[in-house]
Design brief:
Length: 333
């Protein structure tokens, strides 16, 4: 019996999923951040070792019983000198010949589109777009939070704090966001936000990204400036889609499926509506579609493909019944 392990590493959480060739889930496990740029490679090795062991123990399977594994890691492939180290990051628990590491964008794409040609947007702690078409593949975005990750939770949280500062100064009209930020940090004075964010200790990348829901709450409370942040995020994400399409070089009139995953989509229509509108308004033809599988299932599906034992349509349907995207992975368009 073929058994496949998928690992979807993220900036906030890491999901492990073990499936069989018929698309049935044998075990699952969730652990913390796989963002080695923040935690260190040693911590990543420990996280993977513990997570894989826990997953296999649930199913009563040994490492030698796994046909193939795919491990998606944030920032993989963005430091060529470090790639060999990352390629061996699970060597202490898995046979090296039967697993492959790659960027976690592949997990999102394989899950959302069930391994079919098209483009997937990942907007979680960071942001990136990845697509495949006729054997070609391309990515856009994902350059990190200091000068990229447009449309991500980190980007949105930073923009929301910028808006708070403008509201406090009187450079922008005060809306509900102002009081929400004050309450979130228990500020005695608005300038105390500086200490809350810059520290010591300074907010980590993931902790800052966790402030993104404040913008959604403000938008729901009628804050037009906060709602405009989501419109801006949608335009940035649509630009990533266009960049990937250009690199893939499909026929000009081809209708490309576009899907999505990541925590930003838990906010629903406040982001989905302007994103849908942005894609409709382009000269290129896109079909905006809800994700079929969560990214961990996508990683397992991709592992099967790498093993030369791609799941049948019936097996993908079975997997979809057990691994539908959660609110954090995607919502119906």
């Amino acid at each position: 019996m073929n058994i496949f392990l998928g690992v979807d590493g993220g900036g906030t959480k890491t999901d492990f999923l073990l499936i069989d060739g018929a698309g049935h889930v044998l075990a699952s496990h969730r652990a913390g951040s796989a963002y080695y740029l923040e935690t260190g490679v040693e911590a990543l090795e420990s996280l993977l070792a513990q997570g894989i062991a826990s997953t296999l123990q649930q199913a009563g399977v040994t490492a030698s019983g796994i046909s193939f594994s795919f491990i998606g890691l944030p920032a993989y492939g963005e430091d060529s000198a470090l790639t060999p180290r990352l390629d061996s990051v699970a060597a202490q628990v898995l046979p090296v010949a039967r697993y492959r590491c790659g960027n976690d964008m592949v997990c999102g794409w394989a899950g959302a589109l069930a391994g079919s040609d098209g483009i997937n947007l990942v907007a979680g702690t960071g942001s990136i777009a990845y697509g495949e078409w006729a054997g070609r593949h391309a990515r856009a975005g994902g350059w990190g939070e200091l000068f990229s990750d447009e449309g991500s939770a980190h980007w949105l949280a930073r923009a929301a704090l910028t808006l708070f500062s403008r509201m406090s100064d009187g450079r922008s009209e005060r809306g509900p966001l102002h009081e929400l930020v004050r309450q979130r940090f228990g500020l005695r004075g608005d300038l105390d936000l500086c200490a809350a964010v810059y520290g010591p200790p300074a907010l980590s990348r993931s902790a800052l990204a966790a402030l993104a829901p404040l913008a959604a709450q403000a938008a729901a409370a009628g804050d037009l400036a906060a709602r405009a942040l989501f419109a801006a995020a949608a335009l940035e994400l649509a630009a990533l889609v266009d960049a990937v399409r250009t690199a893939l070089q499909p026929p000009p009139q081809a209708l490309l499926p576009v899907s999505y995953c990541g925590g930003m989509f838990q906010f629903g229509e406040v982001l989905l509506e302007p994103l849908r509108s942005a894609l409709r308004g382009r000269a290129q033809r896109y079909e905006f579609t809800a994700p079929r599988l969560n990214p961990a299932a996508g990683a397992a599906l991709y592992a099967a493909r790498l093993a030369g034992a791609a799941l049948t349509a019936a097996a993908v349907d079975a997997l979809a019944r057990e691994c539908a995207p959660s609110g954090a992975d995607g919502a119906a368009p």
